[in-house]
Amino acid sequence: MTDPAGGAPTPPPPSGNWQAPPPPSSPPQAPQPGGNWQSPPPSGAPGGFQTQAVAVEAGPAPGIAYAELVERIIALFIDAVIVGIIGFIVSVIVGLIGGGLIFLFLGGLVSAAISITYFVYTWTTMRASPGQKILNLETVNATDGATMVQRQAVLRWLWLWGPQAIIGVIPFVALVAWPLEILYGIFLLYTASQSPKRQGYHDVQCGTVVIKRARA
Question: For position 216, what pLDDT does the model report?
Answer without folding.
Answer: 65
